[in-house]
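Researcher: Next entry in the queue.
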Amino acid sequence: MDYVEFEKDLIAVLLVVQSVHDKNRLLYKYEQINTDKREPEPVSFHTYYSIVIAKDFDPPSSKDEDAPRKTFRNFDDTTLSILTSPNSYGTHVEVQVDDVVFVGHTLSLENNTNLKSFAAIAKPSVILSYQEMSKRIGTAIRCEEQRANYLNEEYAKLLAVLQQYDIDAADPLNRKNEEGKAKETIEKLYVTMVQQSPLAATLKQIYTDLQASGEINIIINNWLNVSCCLPHRSIALNCPLAIDFAFKVLSNSEQYLKPYYGLLLVIDPSALLNSLPADASSTLTTLVRHLRSSYSMSRLSIETGVPLSQIYSLASHLLYWGRAKIMYPINDENIYIISPDADISKQGSLSKLYRETFQNTSNYPTLQEALAEYSDAVTFYDHLVRNDNESELQGRFQCVEWLLRHRLLTQLHYYYYLLLPNDDRNDFTNEYKLTRLPRTRTPLVRLLSELPTLSSSPMTNPLSYSSIHNSRSTDTLKTMTGTSHDDVFVAGSVNSSVVTGRGSRQILHYLPHITQALPNESTEYHRRLAFAIKDAKEQEVTDFLRIIKYLDGTYHLEEIASLENMTRLRVSTILEKFQTIVIRALHCDPNPILQI
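Model: Structure for this entry, 596 residues:
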C-alpha cells in the first residue's frame, strides 16, 4: 500500500538558544541535501500532432516540489535565528515564510535561557502532526533536565563547539585558507556537534527516522524512551479524507468506534509483536494474539476479558500508528464492491504484490480477476458457495482480507426507511428515489446506561448461512405483495377510514403505542400506520415499534441491532414482516474512521 509518508515534507530540524547574552542563536541544524538531479524523461512516442518542448523550458504553472527546500537553503544561520525568535515559551511556536513553515516548542532553562526545537516543513496541512511530536520530545527532554541537568550540559557542549568555531573563524590565517569554503566549514561544524553532543546526534536520528518511516523510537540521555509517529504518514494515498481532517479523526478515534466494528492488522501479527518495546502493555500483546477478521470489538472484549473501553483505546493506538484499520467483521452477509478509488492497473504495485502473495492459489491468479468477482452488490455468501473444498474457502477468506487491507473493496449496508401509502413526506421520497444517500442524523436522546451491556452483545458466526440470506440485488427486490420499491411512493388504493370489526379494535389498541414511539408525527400519520400494521401479531408489532425510530434512512442493520441489544437475525425478521411499508437503500457507512 502506498502511503503519504513518501511525500518528504520535513526539510530540517533546528535547535535555537535564546539567552540574555546571545539573544537568538542557531545552536544546531540538520538537513539532508539531495544532490540527485532529475533527468528529463525521454519521449516514448511521436505523432505528427506531438509538441516537443525544450528540455530547459519550465512551464510557469508546474509545481516545483523542491521549492520549499530551495527557499530554506537561502536562509543563513543569522536569518534562521531571527525567524525563530517569537516570544512564546512553553507552547507551540509556528512561523511561516513563503512556502516554509517553522514548527517548534520552547523549553525554559536556568539563568533565563530558553532552548527552542524547531522542524522546518514544507506542507502547512501537517502542522498539527509536527506540533504534537515536538511537544512529546520537548516533554521528555524537560524530564531529563529535571532529573539529570541534561539540557544545560548539552547546551554547554554545543556552545563550546560554536565558540571554538568563532575563534577559528576570527584567525586571519584560517580566514584566508577557508575563503570560498564557508559552506563546507559549516557542514564540518555540525558533524563535530553530532560527535560531541548526544542531543545533536538524537536530533539527527529524529530527522533520519522521520524521513524513512515517519516514526521515531529514541532514548533521551540513555534513560528515557520516546516513541511517537506522524500519523499522516500512515494514511493511504487513496484515502478520500483531507490530511488535516484525517489527523483530527486519528487523534480522536475512540469517539468514532462502535462495538460492532472489527480490527484488521495491515502487517503480519508476529512482526508487530516483535516490534513492540520490552515494556509494552501485556494487554496489547493479548489483543494482537486474539485478533480475528471475523471478530467484532465486543467479541474481542469477551474473548480477551479486556473491557470494551480499553479495547477502544488499544485499537485507537494501533490505528494511529498505522498498524491496523477499522472495518466490519467479515461474515457471509457482508456485501462488498470494488472501491471507487482502487488501483486496478496491471502494471501497478498492488497487482505485483497480489501475484506474489497468492501465487500458489488456484482461485484467481491476478488482482483484476479477483476484483471482477465484486462488480455486483451480492452477499459474501454468494461468493463462498462457488468453492467446493475447505482450502478454496479459506483462500477466498484470505483474499477478502487482503483486498480490504489494501482498500480495494468497499462494504455496503442496507439503510431502512418507513414509508406508508399516500406518504407525502417528500424528503424521504426524493432522498430514496434520487440520491439514496443518508441524511444528516438527528441524535437519539439515549443515556449511556441504556446502551447494551457487553455480556449480551450479539455475536455473528462467520461463514454461517442464516435465514436472513437474500442474494437478490437491490434493483430487483420486490415486496411480499409484488410491489417494487419505486411503487411504494404511489398513492395507496385502500381507504383506511373504512375499518370494521377486529381491525378497528387493533387500530385503537396500537394507536397509543405508535404515538409513544413516534411523538413528532401527526395524528393522521399515526392512524395510517396503525391501519398498515393492524393484521400483524401483537408481539411482532411490539418489536417493530421498538425499532421504528431507526427507520429514517440513517441507521443500518448492525447499528439497530447494537443499539437495541438484539441479534441481526431478529431485526431482519422484524423488518421482513413489515416490508410492505419498509424499504431499504444500499450504500456505505459514512463514518470517516472507516475511510482511513
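Model: The first strand starts at residue 10 and ends at 19.
Researcher: Noted, moving on.
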